[in-house]
């Protein structure tokens, strides 16, 4: 029986019923993990999701304390993942999102004042209060690397770490006051429509070219795809796009829905996605997966 070659006809081993996932508290990954959790539950699995720092996620995958991670941002997370991928303790499954980006951002009025590149930051250090605003501790390594680069002259600066929500609250406060702020920006994310913002050039060394142009991939612990081929087939199929994720993240951030509720709402609005996601996928006990999910979600 191949992992991705066709429908998995036999029920999976009992050990596969519990699927352990994690995400670092980013709304895009909370939403996509919520989609995965929703589908797995309707297929008869018992998924669990943990909120962990990126470094802990990779160590947990290596130690086989986690099974699945839907949120490898490449290249933003390469410093965290590289050694695990090279040694084979973490294995790639598929790219689940293309067209993402991730780098420093500022409000447009700051950009128009002359902050258009990483190299411009030091010229306005006092206006920025020598601060860069990041997200959760353990998720800001590239920002910290920029501080350590002598060419940027940011050695006296600090990274303010809090959470995605905390960072965005600071951006909102600074925008209201028309004051200077530089922060971790990315797409997909509703921040791109919530704020009039610009991405800075000059960060290729840290985030990669084209404003940190990125892909997001699904990864599993070593051997998981062979142990649990039906879940692996679902993971192989589970792909997203910027528009779908922006919508789902809006349900989290603006409507206050929990990740699985946001996922269920997004799926209900676009049920055709299920056909591709569940192609060749069965329930845990070997029945047709598409029928089970449609029935479970009342579609």
TrEMBL record:
Domain ABC-type glycine betaine transport system substrate-binding span(s) in chain numbering: 18-267
Matches recorded under InterPro entries: ABC_choline_sub-bd, ABC_Gly_betaine_transp_sub-bd
Domain of life per record: Bacteria
Protein name: Glycine/betaine ABC transporter substrate-binding protein
């Amino acid at each position: 029986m191949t992992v991705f070659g066709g429908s998995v006809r036999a029920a999976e081993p009992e050990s596969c019923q519990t699927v352990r996932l994690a995400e670092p508290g980013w709304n895009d990954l909370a939403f996509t993990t919520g989609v995965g959790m929703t589908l797995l539950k309707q297929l008869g699995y018992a998924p669990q999701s943990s909120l962990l720092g990126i470094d802990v996620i990779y160590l947990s995958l290596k130690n086989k304390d986690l099974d699945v991670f839907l949120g490898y941002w490449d290249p933003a997370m390469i410093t965290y993942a590289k050694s695990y991928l090279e040694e084979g303790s973490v294995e790639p499954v598929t790219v689940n999102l293309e067209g993402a980006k991730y780098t420093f951002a500022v409000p447009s009025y700051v950009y128009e004042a002359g902050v258009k590149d990483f190299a411009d930051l030091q010229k306005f250090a006092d206006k920025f209060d020598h601060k860069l605003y990041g997200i959760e501790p353990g998720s800001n390594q590239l920002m910290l690397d920029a501080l350590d680069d002598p060419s940027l002259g940011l050695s006296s600066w600090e990274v303010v770490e809090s959470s995605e929500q905390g960072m965005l609250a600071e951006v909102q406060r600074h925008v209201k006051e028309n004051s200077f702020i530089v922060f971790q920006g990315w797409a997909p994310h509703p921040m791109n429509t919530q704020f009039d913002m610009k991405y800075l050039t000059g960060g290729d060394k840290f985030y990669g070219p084209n404003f940190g142009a990125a892909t997001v991939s699904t990864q599993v612990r070593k051997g998981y795809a062979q142990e649990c081929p039906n879940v692996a087939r679902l993971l192989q199929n589970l792909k997203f796009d910027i528009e779908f994720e922006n919508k789902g993240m809006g349900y989290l951030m603006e409507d206050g829905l929990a990740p699985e509720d946001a996922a269920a709402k997004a799926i209900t609005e676009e049920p055709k996605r299920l056909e591709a996601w569940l192609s060749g996928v069965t329930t845990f006990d070997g029945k047709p997966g598409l029928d089970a999910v449609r029935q479970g979600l009342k579609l």
